[in-house]
Amino acid sequence: YKTLxxxxxxxxxxFSECLNQPDTVKKIPHLVTGSWVYGTLSTWIGDTDKNRAxxxxxxxxxxxxxxxxxxxxxxxxxxxxxxxxxxCEGSDWFWWFGDYNSTDIVSDxxxxxxxxxxxxxxxxxxxxxxxxxxSFTFGGGSPEMGGAMRTGNES
Length: 155
Known about the structure:
Helix 3 packs antiparallel against helix 4 and helix 4 runs antiparallel to helix 6. Helix content is 47%, strand content 0%. It has helices at 2-5, 15-19, 48-70, 75-89, 92-96, 103-123. It is mainly α.
């Protein structure tokens, strides 16, 4: 940050500072919903396995809301539960699920995702649902066919 703030051609600011200077705010004439990958939301949703992961997260969020609003957690437990929920809500989990990534990569991320959801339930002092102990996505793609990584040029 220090290097950036000392840069002669850059002026750092916050969103609030920009919004308070209407002459610098420019309208975007057209904004497309999607991702730099395929230009759609398919990176995160739509595939059966991705949708299942969202359902699992939705179930966990309902439990989180119920427990937190019930006031049964200490401040420390509530803070830990919020951190666990944020980990589970990271959009990159959903990137990995589906059949286009390789089996090994999908397996690692899928297992870690389920483990994080299990941790959230435990912090909420709840038994994790049994489905969190079973794999739900297996991959099957290969990197050359558009998976997580592509081979580089060999020299």
